[in-house]
Write a structure and sequence with these properties.
Layout (H helix, E strand, L loop, with lengths): L1 E3 L6 E3 L6 H33 L10 H4 L4 E3 H11 L2 H16 L16 H15 L6 E2 L2 E2 L7 H5 L31 H20 L6 E3 H9 L11 H4 L33
Antiparallel strand pairs: 1-2, 3-6, 4-5
Helix pairs in contact: 1-7, 3-8, 4-8
């Protein structure tokens, strides 16, 4: 049920506690909506590839993964693990995630779980979270992502609908520059479909599966989903355990008011997909 405030602008969502049956159904439906979003992002990647005339990633690179531990929702981590397959492979993913959690990052403090935190400490923890997020992803094996086909939205959008870093070594199309990359923008037809699919996905999580919308680091979610018992939480930096409830942005880095002249725009799906 939704309720609008006095101005009729800001909807608030009131969620009934899910039953075990409702929780299971909510997860399955979340998977379906998430896979629908992923399929549209795959179309977006094909669109950009065709426009650029080549692959979006330089072979044997992995540089973006060397400085980024992705944030994702709990349901993205659950879908990833369900897609990884049998226990031996899951164990490899789990071990990497546990090792990352145990690793002490330079300059990142440990405040103590459950301790009352002063506002200054809370601000420092947010800064620590940014430092942690800028470290090497534990699922990167040399230059290869071991869960590439099951990667979360943050990884799928990079350089496709989300602006990549200027240092991205992908070969540039003749019409591109490091600060001016081809990508699918918000205002295109495909961009609109992606935004709509994400909005439906997020609304479903808020109303039908609220426990799955928690956003945190992918390795932390993996450990939580697999219920790793041998990990002593007190020895993990608080910043790696932080989570929040906030919708993501499949067009990360794109200003909301982007105009067509600033970047190449595609208003239709690739010819092969029509």
């Amino acid at each position: 049920m939704t309720h609008k405030n006095g101005n009729g602008l800001q909807p608030k969502v009131f969620v009934q506690p899910p039953t075990s049956v409702g929780r299971s159904k909510g997860m399955v439906e979340s998977f379906v909506l998430l896979e629908r979003l992923y399929a549209l992002l795959e179309l977006a990647e094909i669109t950009v590839k065709e426009s650029v005339g080549g692959p979006l990633c330089k072979e044997e690179c992995g540089r973006c993964c060397e400085v980024n531990v992705p944030l994702c929702t709990a349901v993205e981590a659950k879908l990833l693990l369900s897609s990884v397959g049998l226990l031996p492979r899951q164990a490899g993913v789990r071990d990497r995630a546990v090792k990352w959690l145990r690793r002490q990052e330079p300059g990142v403090r440990r405040y103590g779980q459950g301790a009352a935190r002063a506002p200054a400490d809370q601000q420092e923890m947010v800064k620590d979270m940014e430092k942690v997020g800028g470290s090497r992803c534990p699922l990167l094996d040399q230059t290869r992502c071991i869960v590439h086909n099951s990667r979360p939205m943050a990884c799928r959008t990079y350089g496709v609908t989300a602006i990549p870093n200027e240092w991205c070594p992908r070969p540039l199309h003749f019409s591109e520059a490091p600060r001016r990359r081809m990508m699918v923008l918000r205002g295109t037809k495909l961009g609109g479909k992606i935004q709509e699919a994400y909005d439906i996905f997020w609304h479903h999580l808020c109303t039908q599966a609220p426990d799955l919308r928690r956003v945190g680091f992918l390795p932390t979610h993996i450990v939580a989903v697999l219920d790793v018992q041998q990990l002593t939480v007190e020895r993990v930096a608080d910043s790696k355990l932080l989570s929040f409830y906030k919708p993501g942005d499949p067009f990360g880095g794109q200003p909301v008011d982007y105009i067509g002249e600033e970047l190449p725009v595609w208003d239709s799906l690739p010819k092969v997909m029509k």
